[in-house]
Amino acid sequence: MNRRLVLAITCVIGLSLCAMNAGAVPQHGTAKDGYYPPGYAGDTFTGVVTAADDASRSITLTYTNPKNDKPETLTASFKTDFKARMSDGTVHPVKPSDFPLGTNLKIYYMTAEHKVEGKKVKTLSILSFRAVPASR
User: Fold this and answer.
1) Quick check: is 136 in a domain?
2) Which residue, 6, 16, 25, is CA-closest to 92?
3) CA dihedral 40, 45, 51, 55 (to 10 degrees)
4) Buried residues in 2-30 as b, exposed as e (16+ CB within 10 A)
5) pLDDT tens profile 41-98
6) 40 lies in which domain range?
7) Would you say residue 45 lies in a domain?
8) Which helix (H) or strand (E) holds 18?
9) Number of domains forming the structure of the chain
10) Average pLDDT value over all residues in the chain
């Protein structure tokens, strides 16, 4: 089952790549018009998967600016019940380890602040993701 899920996600990513334009993409961006949950500010981040942790349900994306080779990273988490609809119409739970290191992704995320042991902690929750072509 797990092997089938990884294969299905890889197929979805591959199909998305075919439908997108090639070229450089900025790391931070704003989502296009569409239906999003209340409170969504339109935040996106595009980069390469450099870490995935199933225990914390987090994924780290890294973008390296080609002009100055300065990397920027963003770590965000999937909710426990996060599911993706596959091209065959089935729905499967998504784990961070389903994304191979080196995969180019654009994530749509929401920022929230919570108090943990009296300190404000910012958390980033992934709402959606899309495969993108590699930056040039």
Assistant:
1) no
2) 6
3) 0
4) eeebeebbeebbeebeeeeeeeebebeee
5) 888 999 999 999 999 999 999 998 888 889 999 999 999 899 988 888 899 999 999 9
6) 2-131
7) yes
8) helix 2-19
9) 1
10) 79
